[in-house]
Amino acid sequence: LVEAWQNTPTKWYPIPIAAGALLLVVLQYRKKSTAREVVVDDDGNEVIRLKGPWHVHVIGALPLRNMSRVWGYLNSLELPVWFRPIGFRIYASVFGCNLEEIDPQDLTQYASLGEFFYRKLKDGARPVADAVLVSPADGRVLHFGVIKDGRIEQVKGSTYSLDALLGLARPGTPAVTAVEFPDQKMDEVNHRHFADINGIEYSLHELLGTPTPSSSGTSTPTAEAPHTHTDGAAQTGTAAKKHGERVDASVPRDQTLPETVAQDVSMASEVGLRPTAARRDSFTSVRTKPGNDTFFIVIYLAPGDYHRFHSPAAWVVERRRHFVGDLFSVSPWMAKRLENLFVLNERVALLGRWKYGFFSMVPVGATNVGSIKINFDQALRTNVGSRREHPVGTFTEAVYSAASPILNGQPLVKGEEMGGFCLG
Amino acid sequence: STIVLVFEAPHNFDFFVSAGQKVKVGQRLGD
What we know:
The structure holds two protein chains of two kinds. By secondary structure, chain A is α+β, with helices and mostly antiparallel strands. Chain A is built from 13 helices and 18 strands. Chain B contains no helices and three strands. The chains are: A alpha+beta, B mainly beta.
C-alpha cells in the first residue's frame, strides 16, 4: 500500500462543467422529492392539496363524486329474480366473496347489487378475540405504528397530518385540556363524589338522576343544551349543520333517566370507563398522557370483502365529524401515489375515549363506496351535495350525548356492529 | 374503502399483525 501510495503517478482530467451542473440538478431534485412541501394558510394550518404524479392529477380532474353517485344509483336498481343467483355468483367468484357465511344465504333475496354488497354475515361467523383491540372489518392491514409529531405514515415515505384527519386544532375552536381518567373502581363511584373532566363535578344524586347545580355552576353540560335532541329537527336527523354548529344525532334511550343511568353505569363498567361528562368543546386537541403513546392502524377493505364494520374495542363515541371530500380510490396502488389520500377523501371521524384515553375510528369513503352508514347516527348523510360548498378540512359535527347522558356518548362493546360502507 | 384507527394506549401496547396481512372482523389486532 505504501509503495502504491508513493509511486502511483497522479493524472488530472478535466470534468465537464455540464456534468457537474447535472449532478447538482439531480441532487436538488432528489432532495426536493423527499422533502415534505408544506403549504400553510394564514392561520398556519397545513393546507391539504392534491399532490402526486401526473396521473393522480388526471384522476383528480375526474368527477369522482358524480361517478360514485351514478354507480350507487345503478347498483340500487332492482335485478330480475332469475338473474340474481347468477349475477351474484359471478360477482362472488370475481371478488372472492364467501357465500357460505352470508345471511340470508338465498341469493334471490338480495334485490340489487347494492343490497348484496351490504350483506350481513351469519351469527358466529366472526368470533371476537380476547384482546383489547380487534379488527373492525374484514380487510388488509395497510400500515400501523406509533404517531410521531402528529403525522401518520400513509405508506413508506408519505405521511399525512393527524390534525387534518380528525379535524383537530382547527382555527376558531377553543383549546381543550386532555381527558383525565383516574382508574377508580366502579363501586367507589357509587358512594362518593368524583372529580371529573375539566373541573365539572357531579354528586351521587346527580348521577342517579336528580341533578342539582354544582359549585362550578354547571350541573349538566351547558354547551350541550341548545343542541340537545329535544328540538324536533335534530331528532328527525335533518339537522346536520355547518362547522361550529353541533347537533345531537344520537337516538336517545328511554326518557326515564334513573333507568338509563342504571344502564349507563352498568355499560360504563362493561366498557371499562367511569361515568363522566366532558365539556362539549373537547377534542380540539389531544394530548397523550405520560406513559402512553398514540397509535394508528389502517385497514383497507377490498371490493369483495364484508363491508359492515364493527366496534374494534369497548369505547364511548362522543362525537363525529363528517368531512365532505373527494372520493379517490383508496386501493393500495392509489395510497402509494396520492399523498394525503385519507385527508382528501370523504370520511367520518368518530371521536371518543376508551380505558386508556383517546380513541377514534375513521371510516374513509372511496369512489365505489361513497356512502358511510353509522347505525346510531340518523343525521349522517355522506356523498351528498357538492364538494365546493365544503372546502377541504371543514366538517359538520354531531354529538351523541343523548345516547348515554352519563357516559356522555354512545357506548359500544367490542365486536358490536356500528355501520358500514354502501355502494355509491 | 378504508378504516383508520387512532388511539391512545400504554407504551407497551403491541400490534399482533403485520402490514399486508389479511384480517377479519373480531380478529386480534393488538394488546
